[in-house]
Amino acid sequence: MSALPRLDLPRRTQRGFTLLDLLIAVTILALVLGIAIPGVTHAVARVQSVSARSALTAALFDAQRNATVLGRQVVVCAGDAGGCSGGIDWSDGWIVFIDENRDRQRGPGERLVRQEPALPRGVGLHGTLGRSRVIYLANGSNTGSNTTFTLCDRRGPQDAERLILANGGRLRRDRAEAAPAVACVAGL
């Protein structure tokens, strides 16, 4: 008996994914995103906080420099080009202006030295209760007692910091006290 000829049929190749392949890929993606997103969110919040601290430091330095160079009183306060808001929440921005008439309010004709826009959503800056302005005198010192700013972001009160401005103009950084940190984060 003779053997039958063997037929070589073309092999079928599978294309696409099976449902199991898709479920595994989605599970791996969910795990990676679950780990990566909080880290990225915290990194962005930290960068925004550092940027806000730098902007405040630059504004205070500009105010002190202008006061000493021009021999005039210079005010830094929460507010916009229209003037000081009078509150302790600096999150909506702040201004630096030369206070020609020494009334601590920005009037017509008083030169705006610097204006900082509102902080990004999720970042807060609060000043000392009862100190809505920092006033630099012609000798570069600022009036009143030390001013403390609490800087916070969406990472929570444990990551908030306080910026303490001494009357001589030195700005130092420290961990925020619990109550102001919680109040700052609550305002976000």
Automatic annotation (TrEMBL):
What the entry lists under Gene3D superfamilies is as follows: minor pseudopilin epsh domain
Q: How does it sit in the membrane?
A: Single-pass membrane protein
What are the protein's UniProt keywords?
A: Cell inner membrane, Cell membrane, Membrane, Methylation, Transmembrane, Transmembrane helix
**Compartments, as annotated in UniProt:** Cell inner membrane
Matching entries from InterPro entries are given as: N_methyl_site, Pilin-like, T2SS_GspH
Which top-level group of life is the source organism from?
Bacteria
General secretion pathway GspH domain span: 55-169
Q: What is its main location?
A: membrane
Q: Which parts pass through the membrane?
A: 20-40
Which family is this protein grouped under? Belongs to the GSP H family.
* Protein name in UniProt: Type II secretion system protein H
Q: Which organism is it from?
A: Lysobacter brunescens
